[in-house]
Specification:
- The structure is a single chain.
- This protein is globular.
- With 271 residues, it is mainly β.
- It has 3 helices and 18 strands.
């Protein structure tokens, strides 16, 4: 058991890291913590984390499958993290623009910095302006080790084309996932390419693409980056939650802005 001493003037208090009591932290310090640490994410940075994108919604359905976990990105003044898991019994429904405080276990997955097994979550305020996606390039994203400025952030990649996989030119449904149909290639105008992974088995926003035609022209893609590792091989994968045609602003898919968000055998979580 680790103990930390917090000094405020002449008053000292000890906070033990345990399953029921956690040290309040900000995004940057949580990011650097070892896996398995119980943390409370609040306004230590001077800003409560604000939800800027819903990646998966508990209760959303795809065919006969119903998702049971939430996933959302939240950002404070020091960085951005993903919150992943069931919020059942906690009395809170995640909404973009909410400022929150929460307690859970820090457990990165595929280099996505995640707080899981949430034991407490409170809405501090609503209607806050969410952070805009960070506009980054494929060379920045297509790396074996994600930086703190990339991992866990909502990201936009502009003017790319999508090729490969799918089911006869359409995005896969949940029932068609895990058959190689989720893996596409995203290429920019300078011929830089990387994997576009339509992560249907974990994220309801991806399931919302199911049955939609894969665009044949240039698009802007909004989503998040991760790295899948098998043995000594690591592959960066960008997961879309919104695809926008260029130049017309036609949205393909459902953005995390409230409401129902409309191969190789690998370890993939299902929710």
């Amino acid at each position: 058991m680790k103990k930390y001493i917090l000094l405020s003037g002449l008053i000292a208090s000890i906070v033990a890291l345990s399953a029921s009591n956690a040290l309040a932290q900000d995004a940057a310090t949580i990011y650097s913590d070892p896996t398995g640490t119980v943390v409370t994410w609040d306004n230590t940075s001077g800003q409560y984390p604000v939800i800027d994108a819903i990646l998966s919604q508990a209760g959303a359905t795809s065919g006969t499958h119903t998702y049971t976990s939430w996933s959302f990105l939240a950002q404070d003044g020091d960085g951005s993290l993903d919150v992943f898991g069931s919020l059942s019994g906690l009395g809170y429904t995640p909404t973009v623009g909410d400022a929150i405080t929460l307690t859970g276990t820090y457990s990165p997955f595929h280099q996505i910095p995640e707080i899981e097994t949430v034991t407490a979550i409170t809405q501090i305020s609503s209607g806050n302006t969410p952070a805009a996606p960070k506009i980054l390039t494929i060379p920045t994203l297509n790396v074996a080790t994600l930086s703190e400025g990339v991992a866990g952030h909502l990201i936009e990649v502009d003017n790319v084309t999508i090729t490969g996989a799918g089911t006869n030119g359409f995005f896969p449904t949940y029932a068609q996932a895990n058959t190689g149909t989720e893996t596409f290639t995203m290429t920019d105008g300078s011929s830089h390419s990387m994997t576009l992974f339509d992560w249907v088995t974990s994220y309801s926003t991806c399931a919302a693409f199911g049955g939609e035609a894969v665009p044949t022209g240039p698009v802007d893609v909004i989503g998040f980056d991760s790295v899948f590792t098998s043995g000594t091989s690591s592959t960066a994968e960008f997961t879309p939650i919104e695809i926008i045609s260029v130049p017309e602003p036609t949205t393909m898919g459902l953005c995390g802005a409230g409401g129902l968000l409309a191969m190789i055998i690998r370890l993939r979580r299902k929710v």
